[in-house]
Amino acid sequence: MPTTDSSPIPQPPGLKKIAPYWYPYTTMTKMRWIGRELLEVVSTEFRDRSMEYYRYALESGVTTVNGQIAKPDTKLRDGDRIENIVHRHEPPVTSTPVKVLYHDVEREFLVVDKPGSIPVHASGRYYRNTLIEILVNDFGYKKCYPANRLDRLTSGLMIIPLSPDRARVLTDEFTTGTVRKEYVARVRGRFPAQEIVCEEPLLTVDRQMGLNIVHPEGKVLFIHLQPAKTVFNLIRYDENTNSSVVRCEPLTGRSHQLRVHLQYLGFPIANDPIYSESRIWGEKIGKGGVDTVPSDERSAPAPPPHLEELTKMGGSPESLRTEKDETGEDIGMGSPVPLSSEAVGVITRLRNMKDEDEDWSRWRDVVFRAKGALGPHNLPQGESTQSQGETITQSLGEGESSTDSPSQLTTDEPAQDVNTVIQSDNLYCPECYLPLHPDPKPEKLYIFLHARKYTTSFGAFETDMPEWAAEGWVWDQS
Asked: Where in this protein does the record put region Disordered (predicted)?
C-alpha cells in the first residue's frame, strides 16, 4: 500500500484535507506509444502541464521503465512497464458530507447527493478524496459501480449501483437516453424569459485538459448518437449579482454539455473557472463559439511570462527538441481534428493559467536549488509499497534516496541549503519540493451547477435546491 503520514492534519473550516503520501502509478506501453520517446508520450498523452514541467520531472528520476530509471529520450518498446512515483498531495475538498439519500437493498443501488469539489473516480491528484473511496471507506459499502458521472466541480444527484448486474441496467438507461435529467445553474447576466433550446455539436479538442468546444466535427464523430441538445428555462434573475438561476434539461449526455452550451449562448456559469474565464477566451468569453477553420500555422505555443527569459536563452521549452517543434494536426494536444489558431490560443492559455495557478515557476526554482532527485527518501530500506507486484524501492534502486542520489539536473545558480529553501515561509513540501498553496476558500471549490432530479425505470429521485440557487443569494466574487 502507498505510504502515508499517520499524524493528523489540521482541518480548516469548510475543508477536508488528507496528509500527502507517496504513490506509484503503473501502466504498460500501448501500441501507439511503441517507438516514441518517453517525453513525447507523457506530454501528449497525459498532458495538463507545460512541456518544461514534464522534462524536468523526468530528469529527476521518478519515472522508471521496466524498473530502470528512464530519461526523457528513452524510447518505449512493446511490453515495457512504466512506473511513475509521485508524492501525492491531494487537493482539499469541501467538508460538506456526501449524503446517502436512499439505499435500495433489494434492488442493489444507492442514491447520493455529491458535493461539488469531489470527483467520482480516482484521477489526477485525487484518490482518497473521491466519491467511490468515500462510499467504501467511510460508509462501508464493499463495491460501488457508478452508472453516471458528474464533473468534479458539479454537485448533485448520482445513482450508484452496488452490483455489476444493476450497473449494466442503469448504465444502459443513461447511455440510451431514457433517463430524464434536470439540473439547475446560476449563470452570468439576464437569461431570456422564453425557453431556449441549444443543439450545437460538441467536440473534445484537448483530452488532457478536458476542454470542449462547439465544433461541426462533433456531428461526424457522434453521428451514431442523438445530436447534443439542451433545453433551458429561466427560474429567476437576481439584479444584485446580475446573474440568473436557470433550469437545464440535457436530452443527451456529452462531456461538459451544459457548461459549453451555456457559454455558447452567452450565459456561462457564473463561477466556472474554465468556460467563464476571460483570460482564456477573451472579452466575449466564448459566446457564439470560437473559430473552427484549421490553421496551417503550427508552432510551439508561446510560453507564459515567467518562462520568457528561459525561452530567449534556450529556445522554446514547449518544443520536444531544438530541431523539432511540437507540430502536427493536434500539436500534442490530443485533438481529433486540425485546430484553428484561436483554438490553439485557448488551449495554450488554459494550460499556462494552470501552470501559474499551481506555481510551477516556484517548483522549478526549488528543484534547481535542491539538486536532488525526487523520491521517497524517508521510506525504510526494503519497505514494500505494492503496485502490480512491484515496489517503490525496487523502482528507485535498493537504498536509493532523494538526498543521497546524484541529481540529473544542472544549473549555473550557486547551490543553496535545501532546508533553507524549503522551509522558507513553509512554501515547499520537504519531501518533494512541491509548492504549498494557501488553503482555498470553500466557495471556490465548486461551480454553480447541480444535478437535481433523475427519472429512471427505478423511480424518480431528487435533491433539495442548492443554497446558491436561493433568491437574492450573494457570493464572494473576490
From this structure: 291-339, 374-414
